[in-house]
Here is the input.
Amino acid sequence: MKALMYSPLVPDSNKTKLIETFSAQMIISNYKELGLHVDRFFDGESIYLFECLKTGYRFYYPFKAIGDAEFYKDLSLSRDNYYSERWEHREALNILDRGDTVLEIGSGFGVFLKMLKPKNIIGSGLELNPHAVQKCVEEGLDVKQKLIQDFVLDTKGQFDNVCYFQVLEHITDVYGFIEASIKALKVGGKLIIGVPNNNPYLFRYDKYHTLNLPPHHAGLWNRKSLTSLENVFPLKLESMLFEPLNLTYDYFLKVQLKDLNNNIETLCIKALNKLFPKFLKRLLCKLYKGRNVLVIFTKT
Here is the structure.
């Protein structure tokens, strides 16, 4: 495997390193358990995880292993809560002002766009799932089936806010995607991004977590890589919010307890969970960040 390649976040940099190798067959088997057939995305024995040394952004390779529109349609039909109201939706809503214009990229079935109406916020959406677009249009929402790179050709500098929730981790050309979304913003406008927090507990204890791998995810984001966007684009980081762990504590605990290494940390958690479960929950919720992170940038 070629150990040196260019970063999709800093296209002129080949300062990357190989972090991890995954079995393609194991990934395929895991998706089958979810009722999804993903064989078509894999033609080799392995999937590789690289890290951009300039930004900390981690990305999977080869890029052709990442899902297409048909994959996301199948996924949305197999999971009732795939397009649902999220913690980051509620947090983002508090940032927006009455009368603002908002472009949501990857608007799904319009969950967030519907939340904007009571605040008299003017929302538009872009979505590639044709079924979702049709449903949104039928409900009177302004949603188009377009790529942001095409949409922005006629809408440069038109929006007060551009946002995407649980979208950026699915993109291979992250530089082109973010660059285009910034072009749609007015100077001084806000770019609001919600992504899974690639926190240590998920990757450390659940390496083969199915939906954190291709074809579902193309990249992994954390505090360092999100902060680095200031150095790549005309952006200023205003705030970074982490989802409280208590919202997904049961899953967190399950992942911790199934660790087979039985190191001191795991043994202590197992013991405390038996003796003082409420105390353990309070303690861990103070020590660990939750599964998602929301960042707010201003276009400079």
